[in-house]
Amino acid sequence: MKKTVMIVDDDMDYLFQMKVRIEQFGFEAIAAEGQKEAETILETVRPDLAILDLMMENEDSGFIVAYKIKRKYPEVPVIIATAVTAETGMTFEVSTGPNKDWIKADLFLDKGIRPDQLLKEIKKLLKM
Amino acid sequence: MAEYKILVVDDEPGIRMGTRRILQNFRVDYPFMDEHIEFTVLEAASGEEGIELIDSEMPDIILLDNKLPGIQGVEVLEYVKKKLLDIVVVMITSYASLELAVKATRDGAYDFIPKPFTPQELRSSLENITKQLFLKRMTQKMNKEGKLIRFQFLSVLSHELKAPINAIEGYLKMMQDKQAGESIDAYHEMIDRSLERIAGMRSLIMDLLDLTKIESGKPVQNLKPIDIASVAKLSIDTMRPYAIQKDVDIYLNCKEKVAFNADANEIEIIFNNLISNAVKYNKTGGRVDIFIASENDRITIQVTDTGIGITEEDQSKLFQDFVRIKNHKTRNITGSGLGLSILKKIVDMYQGEISVHSIPEKGSTFTVTLPVLN
């Protein structure tokens, strides 16, 4: 059985490119164009992993989707893919520290990550 | 667990007790809050009693009735505003006095809850208010620490500038790797999308240039008598090719020559933004009407379209930086999200006003009124 990866991003080009890439990795890809669509899909679908953009309808849409995924499917790993760190110098550390309580993501990735690195991170989170 | 104090000022004991009961086991969760928030309820049967409790207990939220036995609710609201207290005031009011409630929100009340309300209505109102208050306090804290200066603007800006580059880079890499095969035909869509993103980026840069020319609050500089209609015509000419592409007709309705002291460039930015939006968000075969009129000491510019319209919820966000209304109807329309915020800044400079009236699926009307400056 192919694992299912959900991708959420409001940039239709980035979303398309990620979908192609994820499918090349050999996963099933489900694409959602924003927070609302993601929330609708999540009502009926349990992905094996989710990759979320941060700023969509709202600046914190990614956090909210992550929060909702974790509430419904606590065991599903969540990656937030963002360019925020590079843009603002603001860093999030999810594995330690006080942020762990409220940022419900397993990993932060920069959007410009190399495909092979992305695959490595996904496999690690899926314990493959 | 954090606790917010809610003060209910209402002379009806039923409302006070009801509120207490409804909020007894109520709590608000929010991803950004590391803890949930619960509520304690304080009661006041009159405005005077309310003010006493405001001073002694410093509540976080006030649910305020206007019709009170002694001083009126709006006076309590004034008291809070005058003392610059960090309290969110929500008017509770019967439907009959909705007009008053709307006025109160203009005078600084955060919102109003029509009476009678259901427990669910009260809870969901309070949930929103609590989140708003929480975020506001967090922002204030960050402001104090000097962290938030231009931070939001710059971070969104770089996000908006970078997104198209990422997208185009992605497509180019796909082409470089020949991911869709040897034939160039397979890449048409990617090329089209890349060109589209470049166009979007160019318009963002143009808007940024406009933005650097104006600084909010700065008085208008190059005042000269200008003929508003001829500025409008200039702007229509600029938009004409795009309107033809979309099969949208533009009509200018201006009975008499309207002269006005202004900076022509700034007035042109106003027209450019209003007309380009009216074309962009129109339906194929639609129309745009521009009305210019002068009355007493005010000039009115009105641009009406027959486009997709804007929901009431979205209307309130329209004039903020980088706000783009995202839904299935707008997904193929590009824009920087700066146009209307630039427009608003210019209108503010002229001490004018801008308003929007819109019906989804029918169209929108933007009205700018500018006082005649000396």
Walk me through this protein's architecture.
The complex is a heterodimer of chains A (128) and B (374). Chain A is an alpha/beta fold and 128 residues long. Chain A has a domain of 84 residues: Rossmann fold (3-Layer(aba) Sandwich), CATH 3.40.50.2300. Chain A has 5 helices and 5 strands, in the order E-H-E-H-E-H-E-H-E-H. Chain B is of the alpha/beta class. Chain B folds into 3 domains: 143 residues, Response regulator (Rossmann fold), CATH 3.40.50; 60 residues; 156 residues, Heat Shock Protein 90 (2-Layer Sandwich). In chain B, the strands form 3 sheets. In chain B, strands 2-3-1-4-5-6 form a 6-stranded mixed β-sheet, sandwiched between helices. The radius of gyration of chain B is 25 Å and the shape is globular. The chains are: A alpha/beta (128), B alpha/beta (374). The interface between A and B is medium-sized, with 29 and 23 residues.
Order of strands, widest sheet of chain B: 2-3-1-4-5-6
What's the β-strand tally of chain B?
Answer: 13
Domain module tally of chain B = 3
Mean pLDDT of chain A, nearest integer? 83
| Main sheet makeup of chain A | 5 strands, parallel
Terminal CA distance of chain B reads 57 Å
Question: How do you describe this structure in short?
Answer:
The complex is a heterodimer of chains A (128) and B (374). With 128 residues, chain A is α/β, with parallel strands linked by helices.
What's the topology here?
The complex is a heterodimer of chains A (128) and B (374).
Chain A: E1 4-8, H1 12-24, E2 28-32, H2 35-44, E3 49-52, H3 61-72, E4 78-82, H4 84-88, E5 107-110, H5 115-125
Parallel strand pairs in A: 1-2, 1-3, 3-4, 4-5
Chain B: E1 2-9, H1 13-23, E2 27-28, E3 37-44, H2 47-57, E4 61-65, H3 73-82, E5 88-94, H4 98-106, E6 111-115, H5 119-144, H6 151-176, H7 188-213, E7 224-227, H8 228-245, E8 249-253, E9 259-262, H9 264-280, E10 287-295, E11 298-305, H10 312-315, H11 339-349, E12 353-359, E13 363-371
Parallel strand pairs in B: 1-3, 1-4, 4-5, 5-6, 8-10
Antiparallel strand pairs in B: 2-3, 7-9, 10-11, 11-13, 12-13
